Amino acid sequence: MAPKSEVILAAFQQSGIIPVFYHDDVNVCLEVLQACYDGGLRVFEFTSRGAAARANFSAMLEKKKATMPEMYLGIGTIKNADDAAFFADAGADFIVCPIVDAATAAICQQKSITWIPGCMTPTEISVAEKNGAQLVKLFPGNVLGPGFATAIKPLFPGLKFMPTGGVEPTAASMKSWFDAGVVCVGMGSNLLSKAVIENRDWTALKEKVMQTFAILKSLA
Q1: Per DSSP, what are the bridge partners of residue 186?
Q2: CA–CA separation, 157 vs 126, rounded Å?
Q3: 47 and 78 Cβ atoms separated by less than 8 Å
């Protein structure tokens, strides 16, 4: 059974930083998860962006259950109800989508798993809200910008927002988004850099996560 939505939402807000990652190599996936956990992250989004997504996610879930009891591990880039059902049954803690899909929302409600849809317009956000979303991914963040979050937030006082795409692990970038009222930010290659992954420098990744947390705390 996936954690209740209020638990997931609190974890997202407490973390402030949500890593977004995919790799074909299961060992890389496990090492990245470990480095992020060791760096203090307690929420992790693995994306379903390759042929190995299901197998690798299952391996990551096993590692999480065995050695990372405080980690919330969810799946992203889910675009249909069938995939949502598979990962919910596999044990994902939450489902993140790049789109708003009513059938996916219905499956997540049926499976009692938190659904986080991706939106780019006020209309999409309204549809997401009507389908039960409590946290909405603003995607792509680099196209929308913090000004968009500032503008739409008063229209949807009951929703929480998380930009993904283009957010950088710098004080200026993160401050602009949090000042706009988002509760957390999703980061992919800007946090989990291609060079660090290719070099298998897990110590550097852990340090980058810790450094980014320190920057975030300095903004409070």
Answers
A1: 18, 164
A2: 11
A3: no
Report the phi/psi class of residue 132: left, alpha or beta, with left for phi > 0 and alpha for psi in -120 to 50: left
Contact 62, 46 (CB under 8 A): no
Whether the CB-CB separation of 111 and 2 falls below 8 Å is answered with yes
Q: What is the 3-class SS of 181-203, one letter each residue?
A: CCCCEEECCCCCCHHHHHCCCHH
Q: Give the number of other Cβ atoms within 10 Å of residue 77's Cβ.
A: 19
Query: Of how many residues is the chain composed?
Result: 220
Residue 96: its H or E element: strand 94-96
Q: What is the pLDDT of residues 22-46, one digit of tens each?
A: 999 999 999 999 999 999 999 999 9
**pLDDT at residue 1 greater than cutoff 80:** no
pLDDT in tens, 70-110: 999 999 999 999 999 999 999 999 999 999 999 999 999 99
